[in-house]
Amino acid sequence: MKEKYLPSVAEGSCWAAFGLTEAGAGSDAAGIKTTAVLDGDEWVLNGTKQWITNGGEAQIYTIIALTNPEKGIRGASLFLVEDGDPGFTYGKKEDKMGIRASATRELIMKDCRIPKDRLIGKKGTGFITVMKTLDVSRPSIAALAVGLGQAALDEAVVYAKQRVQFDKPIISFQAVQHMLADMAIQVEAARSLVYGTARHIDAHPKDMSKSSSMCKVFATDMAMKVTTDAVQVMGGYGYMKEYPVEKMMRDAKILQIYEGTNQIQRNVIGQELNKEYA
Ligand SMILES: Cc1cc2nc3c(=O)[nH]c(=O)nc-3n(C[C@H](O)[C@H](O)[C@H](O)COP(=O)(O)OP(=O)(O)OC[C@H]3O[C@@H](n4cnc5c(N)ncnc54)[C@H](O)[C@@H]3O)c2cc1C
């Protein structure tokens, strides 16, 4: 199987997607209903994954499904499903508030048959693998947030230097300077946290859930605040589509929602603190 995928990955032509969420299983990811049953040399998958990034564009899909439904999520396993597999289709492209250049679709599996060796890891370890994967991937959402915050700050500063009101560039008003200063402080703090968390993860700690969640929450809340403030600094022009900050503000919102909402991240941090101070 490895030989089959590695060349196209190396060429940069292989897109991947991650299918966890279902209509009834968002924050409560343990509520998934998709099943996988072994039939001879093939797994047969049934279920629908919702709002999957790169859905319909990717060639390979990591799908979590119940292989032992009586055990609930402890009986879940991970599979590799390929574009074109029999019984595997897509829903319509979602019409979203932001990140509109990124396709989001349903993944529909109706008696979807895949070879037996497409099971990833051991049967029954799917949920643990998914949770560990999210621990590592969340700081990458935080990194996106830092880029977005920095871009919004850049736009706001350039604009504030050019825009003249009351015969002065608006950057000369202390109220505007303080907004820009706060934006810069927040972006820099988030950047430091992302690098710090990345170093922490590179050291392969036993548990990284708390640091990963803290990083995601701080940076993505920062991106929402800084992009909103960039629109404010630019006034009515910031609200118009001619300038990029309204798009940045719309794009920032998803960062607080996907890869686990910021409320769920705060739950994780709180639970870890409770354990640490036991
Ligand atoms: C554009 C987009 C792309 C996505 N891409 C993917 C993808 O590639 N793969 C994938 O698997 N999923 C993907 N998702 C799904 C995403 O991860 C979920 O939307 C997210 O986890 C939240 O689930 P939900 O939307 O069902 O919200 P819900 O779980 O219904 O939550 C609604 C609200 O209730 C709050 N809430 C729920 N439970 C609790 C609790 N216990 N404590 C406190 N607050 C709580 C939430 O924080 C939220 O504010 C994507 C979603 C979107 C919108």
Automatic annotation (TrEMBL):
Residues 124-273 form the Acyl-CoA dehydrogenase/oxidase C-terminal domain. The keyword Oxidoreductase applies. Its EC number is 1.3.8.10. It is an enzyme of class 1 (oxidoreductase). Residues 17-112 form the Acyl-CoA oxidase/dehydrogenase middle domain. Keywords: FAD, Flavoprotein, Oxidoreductase. InterPro entries: Acyl-CoA_DH_CS, Acyl-CoA_Oxase/DH_mid-dom, Acyl-CoA_Oxase/DH_mid-dom_sf, AcylCo_DH-like_C, AcylCo_DH/oxidase_C, AcylCoA_DH/ox_N_sf, AcylCoA_DH/oxidase_NM_dom_sf. One of its GO terms (molecular function) is flavin adenine dinucleotide binding. It comes from the Bacteria. The keyword Flavoprotein applies. Its cofactor is FAD. Belongs to the acyl-CoA dehydrogenase family. Homotetramer. This is Cyclohex-1-ene-1-carbonyl-CoA dehydrogenase. It comes from Candidatus Electrothrix aarhusensis.
